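Consider the tokenized backbone below.
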């Protein structure tokens, strides 16, 4: 029973990783062909992100745009993780290209103009790693569950044969 629960947990966790990573990669690649609208930068700064192990620098750009008469504001630079963990020099160079008031070309999803990106080409190796890692977990979970089911079926067959061999009117040899 433990192996079934572990297999199911791996299946759910791996499926979530593969789905989330796959959706990120899909959006990053598909967004390149989405409709384009011009927007303007509201603010552009570099944020310092600290954790126990490291410090990273991330560009933070807020922009506004209008599609079909509706106004939107967003901070999404890219769907992939390519904008995260940049060096200070890279992050500063990125935000210098986008000063407040600067015009920007944005790609928005057909049918959902609130789903937008500024730098749609950015994906990182980590995005592929999350997707691939999730897919591997799903595969291992399926193999584990299939093997557990095969083992249980084999054990039941052996028990059934043993009960037939030792049943009334038969002699075990």
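A designed sequence for it:
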């Amino acid at each position: 029973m433990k192996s079934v629960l572990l297999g199911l947990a791996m299946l759910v966790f791996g499926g979530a990783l593969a789905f989330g990573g796959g959706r990120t990669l899909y959006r990053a690649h598909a967004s390149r062909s989405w409709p384009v609208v011009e927007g303007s930068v509201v603010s552009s700064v570099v944020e310092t992100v600290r954790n126990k192990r490291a410090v990273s620098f991330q560009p933070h750009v807020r922009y506004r745009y209008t599609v079909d008469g509706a106004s939107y504001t967003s901070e999404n630079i890219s769907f992939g993780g390519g904008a995260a963990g940049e060096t200070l020099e890279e992050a500063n160079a990125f935000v210098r290209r986008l000063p407040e008031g600067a015009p920007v070309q944005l790609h928005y999803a057909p049918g959902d103009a609130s789903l937008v990106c500024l730098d749609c080409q950015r994906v990182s190796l980590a995005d592929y790693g999350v997707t691939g890692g999730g897919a591997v977990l799903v595969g291992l979970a399926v193999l584990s569950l299939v093997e557990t089911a095969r083992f249980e079926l084999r054990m039941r067959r052996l028990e059934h044969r043993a009960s037939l061999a030792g049943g009334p009117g038969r002699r075990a040899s």
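Helices lie at 2-30, 88-96, 125-165.
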